[in-house]
Amino acid sequence: MSPVRVLALSLLVLLSGCSGCEREEAPKPPPVVEVDAGAVVPLARLEGLSGDVRLERAGKVVPAVEGPLLAGDAVETGDQGSAVVRFPGGRTVEVSREGRFALGSDSTGVVMKVERGIVLSRVPAGGGSVAGSKVTLNILTPFGLTRVGPEPSEVKVAVAEDSARVEVKLGAIELVSKDGRTLRAAEGDAVDLTRERAQVVPAAPRIVELAPIAVTVRATSGDAEVKAKSTGRWRKVRREGEVLASGDGVRTKGGEAVLSLKDSGSLLTLSPGAEAVLEGAGQEGATDEARVNLLQGLLAVQLAAGRTSRVVLPELTLEGGGAAKLEIRRTGAGMQVTAQAGDVTLRRGDTRQALRAGERATVGSDGNAKVAPLEDAAVAVGPGNGTEVFHRGLAEVALTWEGEGDTVVEAAQDAAFTRRVLWGRVHRSSVNVSALARGTLYWRVRKEDGSQVAAGSVHFAPESPTSALARVRNVVPEGPEKTTIFYQDKPPAVTFTYGSEPQASTYRVAVYKAGSLTTPVAQRTVAETRAALEAGALGEGSYLWSVTPLSQAGAALKGGRMNKLELVYDNSVVGLVVDSPRQGGAATEKVRASGVAPVDARLSINGRAVPLDGKHRFDTWVAPMGMPPLLVFKMTRPGAPDVLTVRTLKPRGP
């Protein structure tokens, strides 16, 4: 009934003065939908009006006309009405007959509260490319909240009195049910909703016959072995690589083995200590499939760009529609699937679940998967070329950059990016990537339009043993000239040399502090013409030393001549020297960190600035971070790349 008719009936009742007469009462207007109005700014535009369409603004209901929609506006269509709501960036929402919605916004985007009726949201390809137009639409119903991102999509939401149904015709959605559960649905899926439950109805699987393709295995480092199904015996993989047959096993020892699918670009990499059985592989057009049984360890998967890929394991299937980097790890309780870059779908029977870049799914023995966001790796590296990371056994680093929004990340072991180790879309300004044992990792980040956001390179190498300085031995010859030894880190070992005496059986070498010749600070009696003092026996300062030849009876054959020696601390180290903690040492609540840095360096440990003394030494206590526990020493110098030294400690017991 139109507002005009409601007003006419009200006037007739008043004029008749009959409050109890039997006339049809005017229907009550629909309740005002409470939506956070926010600022009075246009959120969308109302157009494509047909039939009876009404606009409610500031509590007043009027016939709708084409024009802007503000936060707090509500629109209602009659039994023959329909309308189109157009949002910035090309998104449209079609509202069918007998529908009602209200507009508002929150921190995540625009909120369309649908009380009843059918709405159809469309985002055309390329529609979200307009700057500032990437807005998430939240469709709120009495039965749940449906989030539709800015990517190309087509989503239908039908709201009835006691239920609702969401159909994903294109793209993907995230839905939060009334009980707080978060569900994900992809193209072809539907979600049935009531106040008590929410259930994803997966799309019917598309059966495609794939032609068998060859899979080649190569050992990229260390040793890899293959076990032919026909023989059941392990042997080393041929140096040039070899083609696997269905049922063949592969295992790695101290290195990696790469399985490549013919004419695909997808790679499966077995990490050290992993073992898997190839069940087969197939291809049809732009669709690839690899069937693998991961028996133990870690399998890294790089899915090819521009192709539809499936990795089929006994417990689940991973499906991707483009470049993606995944890690699949066999655990005692089931499996872990990590999406470092690229979005994929997990399938377990008829259940489908989205796994986005930056998330990890833990799949239990019961088949249920719990998805949680990934934390950044403890060791972070920013843009810039030449960053150095010295470590022994570091698992991964986080590549970080400034900015927001989706980007495409590439990481490779060559500057031309032909030997990629990671490629795919990410949704935040960081990505975790496996650390190389030795070598340089090149990386770059680009927007969807190809413009570069950030780039850099990281050189990985084992840390040189810090005991190398302790092994430095300075030779001090006998003679009138003063010997000056400049040292770094700590006083070095010293070897005194002198001429031989024909009658001497042994030689006594005594070292005194200058100005104090009463008692020697060090003394050695040796049979050779050289006497060694261990590192640290003499500290910084000036010394006098003498050598006295002794007879077989121990008598002095002649007096010893005094020679001059000076030990001077000179910090000319070119790299960071870490004395403690030692690699693999036991972790405690706080561990001692000490060493020396170059004169123009600044140092932080686990993100906290560390003061250096006048000789650029440091000695402090630091709480380890991460698991396994780490101490990350970061050295910065003017005009030089950052240098990170990582010490991995042994976790404390229970």
Report on the structure:
The chain has 654 residues and is mainly β. 2% of the residues lie in helices and 53% in strands. The strands form 7 sheets. The chain has a 17-stranded mixed beta sheet that branches. The chain has a 9-stranded mixed beta sheet with strand order 39-38-41-42-36-57-56-53-54, with no helix packed on it. A hairpin with a 4-residue loop joins strand 12 and strand 13 (164-170). The longest helix has 14 residues, at 3-16. It starts with a helix and ends in a 6-residue tail after the last strand.
The helix content is under 10%
| Biggest pleated-sheet summary | 17 strands, mixed
Proportion of residues in β-strands: over 45%
Q: Label the overall shape.
A: elongated
* Poorly predicted spans: 1-39, 128-133, 466-471
Short account of what is shown:
2% of the residues lie in helices and 53% in strands. With 654 residues, it is mostly beta strands.
Features:
1 helix, mainly beta, 17-stranded mixed sheet, disordered N terminus, 654 residues
Topology readout:
Blueprint: H1 3-16, E1 42-50, E2 53-57, E3 60-63, E4 67-70, E5 74-77, E6 82-86, E7 92-95, E8 100-106, E9 109-123, E10 136-141, E11 144-148, E12 153-159, E13 164-170, E14 172-177, E15 182-186, E16 190-193, E17 198-201, E18 211-212, E19 215-227, E20 234-236, E21 242-244, E22 249-261, E23 267-270, E24 275-284, E25 287-296, E26 298-303, E27 308-312, E28 317-320, E29 324-331, E30 334-341, E31 344-348, E32 351-355, E33 359-364, E34 369-373, E35 380-381, E36 384-390, E37 396-400, E38 407-412, E39 420-426, E40 430-434, E41 439-446, E42 452-461, E43 473-477, E44 483-487, E45 493-497, E46 506-513, E47 522-526, E48 530-533, E49 541-550, E50 563-569, E51 577-580, E52 591-596, E53 602-605, E54 608-610, E55 617-622, E56 630-636, E57 643-648
Parallel strand pairs: 9-10, 25-27, 35-37, 36-42, 36-57, 43-45, 44-50
Antiparallel strand pairs: 1-4, 1-6, 2-3, 2-5, 5-8, 6-7, 7-9, 8-9, 9-12, 10-11, 11-14, 12-13, 13-16, 14-15, 16-17, 18-24, 19-20, 19-21, 19-22, 22-23, 22-24, 23-26, 24-25, 26-29, 27-28, 28-31, 29-30, 30-33, 31-32, 33-34, 37-40, 38-39, 38-41, 41-42, 45-48, 46-47, 46-49, 49-50, 51-52, 52-55, ...
